[in-house]
Amino acid sequence: MSNRCRYLLLGFLIALHHSHSWAQDNFGIKFFGLSIHPLGEKDNAHLMPHKLDPQGYLVMNLGVVLSYEKFVVEDALSFKFGIAQYADCAAQWGGFLHAGIRAKIFKIKKHALYGGIGPTFIFRRNWHTLDGYINRNRFIGDKDDFIQYKFLWYGGEFEYRFNFYRAWDLSISFVPGFPDLVSLSIGVNYRFRDN
Fold first, then answer.
1. Each residue of 141-188: pLDDT tens digit?
2. How large is the average pLDDT for residues 10-17?
3. Which of 113, 114, 116, 186 is nearest to 155 (CA)?
4. Rounded to an integer, what distance in angstroms lies between the CA atom of residue 107 and that of residue 119?
5. How far is 39 from 50, CA to CA, in rounded Å?
6. pTM value?
7. What would you report as the CA-atom Rg of the chain, rounded to the nearest whole angstrom?
8. Which end of the chain has less neighbouring CB within 10 Å, N or C?
């Protein structure tokens, strides 16, 4: 690692440690959700027991997303870490791990919108075991593997928050994975300090 990178990293860690933004740090829990396939999923829609239409444009997923957000600039710039476990579109075990940087897009009184981007690791139980599965090569994994997975350097999220009581926010997340998948989840965030 070059000296310049070391100094930047050291400066960042000092700023993080001495930041007064800790009052905005928060923990979130969301219920997952609704999967939207903008182009449909006609090849594999027959494998989706909770689809809301015959072509698999809309599919209900049941699960939970846990997150922790650390602000480095008060109510403006943060790092967010998330983990999810859910039943995927085929009602099989799946989930993701995410770490990213986020920024406030706007805040008006009790309403706020944040956007973020960062690496995301998505996994699911192998669909090759399902009768009639048509592999569209979106996930990595052979027929004998337990899971299929996908790694994205640029996984992102838009999150709307409404402050409904002191340190508590209603939170709705929108993950724009166009053209393959768009997902929605809803839950709450709790800030460690009420401002």
1. 999 999 999 999 988 999 999 999 999 999 999 998 878 889 999 999
2. 57
3. 116
4. 26
5. 18
6. 0.85
7. 19
8. N
> Taking the C-alpha atoms of 132, 138, 139 and 142 in order, what is their torsion angle to the nearest 10 degrees?
50
Residue showing tokens 């969301």: 30
SS3 118: strand
Three-state DSSP class for residue 8: helix
| Least confident stretch, 9-13, 97-101, 105-109 | 9-13
Which residue's entry shows tokens 């905005």? 24
Look at residues 159, 138, 141 and name the one whose alpha carbon lies nearest to residue 65: 159
From the number of C-beta atoms within 10 Å of its C-beta (0-12, 13-18, 19+), residue 99 rates as middle
End-to-end CA separation in angstroms for the chain: 39
Write down all domains in the chain, each with its CATH number in brackets: 22-191 (2.40.160.20)
Note the pLDDT tens digit of each residue in 50-100: 999 999 999 999 999 999 999 999 889 999 999 999 999 999 999 999 999
Q: Which residue has the tokens 């998505």?
A: 122
Q: Position of tokens 């039943």?
A: 87
E strand segments, 24-146: 26-36, 58-73, 77-87, 93-108, 111-125
Of the candidates 124, 136, 15, the one whose C-alpha atom is nearest the C-alpha of residue 63 is 124
Tokens of 28: 């979130």
What does the DSSP 8-state code read for residue 91? S
